[in-house]
Amino acid sequence: MNDSARRILTLAKHEYRAAVRSRILSVLLGILVSVTAVSVFIASVDYRSQVADYRAYVASAQAGGVQRIAPSPLRPLSLLRGATEYLEIIGAVIAITLGYLTIARERTNRTLTLLRSRPVTAGELAGGSLLGAVGIISTLVVVTGTAGVLLAGLVGNDWINAAQAVRLGLAAVSAVIYMMVFYCVGAVATARSKVAASGLMIALGIWLLVVLIIPQLGDTLDADNQIPGGLFKALGLNREGETQILSHFHTYETTRVGIEEASFAKHYERFSFAMTDVLDKYREYSLSQLLHEKWHDIAWLVVYPLLALAALWQSFRHQPTIPTGDLQ
Amino acid sequence: MITTIASHQILALRRQRVFIALLGILLAMTALAGVLGWSSHRTIVGVYGEATRLLAAQGQPAPANPFTLKPTLALLSNMVIYIPLIGALLALVLGHLSIADDEAGGVGRLVFSRRVSRNTYLAGKVTGAAAVLAVILASSLVVSATSVWIVNRTVPTIAELGRLGLFYGLSWLYLLAFALIGMIAVLATRSKPIALLSAMGAWLVITFVIPQFTSGLRPTASLNPIIDPVSTSQTFFKVTSKARPFSVVEQYKTVSGRILETAPSEPMAQTIARTLPLALLAIVLIAIAAVLLSHHDFSRGAGDE
Fold first, then answer.
1. What pLDDT digit, counting tens, does each position of B138-183 carry?
2. Would you say B183 and B294 are in contact if contact means Cβ atoms under 8 Å apart?
3. Among A86, A89, A221, whose Cβ lies nearest the Cβ of B36?
4. In this predicted complex, what is the ipTM?
5. Chain B CB contacts of A265 below 8 Å
């Protein structure tokens, strides 16, 4: 291992340890893991009875000598929808907090300027902090995912198979990338603010816009969402009729889709929902078909992190080597 | 003295441009709700027109117009989402700054070197925050009434204005509770950022977590003004739904729906009863703030973690 890699690893270990010691982070993590567990539990209780019904049907069909038994429409991964949604909302806040703490802690302890005065490059500093944060975020996602799978299996009485485990793994990777971007948002906003608390507020403002407001606008403008149960269903129209009518609303739909596209959170949500069988239409797709269908969301999941990493590196590069500004 | 403390707080918020920022965001949010309502109106009318033509071409009868029953104030239904989502967060920041700035700037120490009781100080702070919220929401009411006028092409009736007034009155009470949470978080913690994040944690739990436990509402479903009914026949919900009256965000949305006539009507007494937990919450929060304030050391500066 060369010196640079060793320095990055040391910084990453420091970041990981410091984050684990943070009380506020522990509280937010506690909230995330417990609400996710309860959300999966609630879904699993209902699911269990559906699994029992399907197994009873299979048993009676086999006893009756039926040759063609309908495959199960049930998918245990879909029980993790709550986990995806909570990672999208609370996970992003946790990541911002991590990013904020990375800068605020070093500023308060006056170690950031010390670090910048040492032979550590901005890239190593950014890389070390990010690696530590990725370690924390990965731990959090793995714990949440494992708790979800165990609950789905134990309570829902249906375990995921190897193919589903691979897709869950990809969803977990997307969750880590998603949170990593918000980590960068928290760190960059804090590093660029003279007062750390102001940086935190700016980062939370961005979170509000990207995670809650923009996706809400897209959903609210969706023609089908105007009436409970769906506008097209209320008008007695099938999918074909819906497509035919929406062709008359090209500009409207383009604007609406454009608004949704602007939200990084929406891309994460779409990819994760496709990977975890939340949406019926993707349930019969193979992994390669899914990846092909979701290439657009995957592209955004690559572009946004690259931009965020560049911004993080720039922020560390511009950190002063002598103390300036307010510590708060 | 209460008036002096409240006036000082309002002045400080004006000087820091927090007041103008809050007002700007709330008004933009109200205007956005109006634009979305207008867009929704146009979409439904347009889709209905196209559906009628399509079905007629297929020799089928025209469907029932799903829009005829939509009330005139329904175009503001997005406000029912924005108040708990954005308004509550802004109220948290307002409450947070009310106390945190006094702590950091030394005003708290100065005030308590005089003959000012802790309860008087709290009353002044709550009055100041309540007044700021009242001015902001009154401005939002004007924007909402104008939106209704423009979109519906008729001047809002006295009854409609009354309903808007009631809705904003309810929203004021809701936001006041969150301003109090912001104050309590500062009084209960040692650092400003931790106070802000703790208050946000409380907001996340109230806005997203509790509704899922009591009504099975998924977090992202809570963002849409039109929610598909969720099955809550499980034993779990039979137990947790008993706590639904205390899920203030759900009660706020339900009462707002009744006021704006976007939800099915119910006896007036039942609607009033739904607001009681919110009023109770505000009272409990004031009591908690009073207890915390009585032990609070203003000589301690607020710092980072």
1. 999 999 999 888 877 888 889 889 999 999 999 999 999 999 999 9
2. no
3. A221
4. 0.74
5. none
Q: What three-state secondary structure class fits B191? A: strand
Closest residue, chain B, to A18 (C-alpha):
B305
Enclosing domain of residue B30: 2-295
In a domain, B52, yes or no: yes
Residues A189-213: tens digit of each pLDDT = 988 888 777 788 888 888 888 888 8
Q: Which of residues 47-86 of B touch A (CB under 8 A)?
A: 47-48, 50-51, 54-55, 60, 63, 66, 78, 81, 85-86
Q: CB–CB of B234 and A46 under 8 A? A: yes
- Shortest alpha-carbon distance between residue A68 and chain B (Å): 32
Please give the backbone phi and psi of residue A322, each rounded to the nearest 5 degrees, phi first: -125, 145
Q: What is the SS3 assignment for A284?
A: coil
Question: How many C-beta neighbours within 10 Å does residue B34 have?
Answer: 23
For residue A238, the 8-state DSSP code is -
Q: How many domains does chain A have?
A: 1
- The residues facing B191 across adjacent strands are B303
Is residue A187 situated within a structural domain? yes
User: Within a domain: residue B51?
Assistant: yes
What tokens were used for B82?
């924005």
DSSP for A190-233? HHH-SSHHHHHHHHHHHHIIIIIIHHHHHHHH-GGGGSTT-HHH
